Amino acid sequence: MMNIVTVCAVTMFFSCRGDISEVQEINRIDKIPNGVAENFRLKYTDSTHLKAVVSGPLYKDFGNQSFPYQEFPEGVYVEYYGDNDQVSTIQADYGIVYSGTDLIDLQGNVVIKTHDGKILRAPQLYWDQTNDWIFTEERFTFESDEYDIEGVGIDFNKEYTQLRFRQGKGDAVIEE
Known about the structure:
Layout lengths: L1 H16 L2 H7 L8 E12 L2 E14 L6 E4 L3 E6 L5 E6 L1 E5 L4 E11 L5 E10 L4 E11 L3 E11 L5 E10 L4
Antiparallel strand pairs: 1-2, 2-3, 2-4, 3-6, 4-5, 5-7, 6-7, 7-8, 8-9, 9-10, 10-11
């Protein structure tokens, strides 16, 4: 009888050994979000003034991480309000906001449309909220009254008054 118990115990030990890492991965608490919202619409205000409306099909808040972030795994649409309540929009197939660094990473069919008609398209775009600086190293197209440019790599400030292109071609209106 003792031999049967020993054989069963040894068999159970060896049969579970390969799966322990999978069990540990499933039970990792850092993969569980603080909150989840479906078909959401979040409004951001500052001193009772509406600054932005963020919406999409799915929002996950991972504020419980050692490096906290918010994720928009099924896409995101943002209306942001400038001076005089002028509305500009951003849309992307995926978005993630890193709270600790104030960096936003937008991916997949990223389109920014400003209130005054500027349009930027890229497969990925980063927005440094601390410095109000937007950039990508990916292929882009940028259209406005002054520019009609396509290339690889662009960075600019939020007001589009300081533009830098790394590899670009197109038309630009230059004032003397």
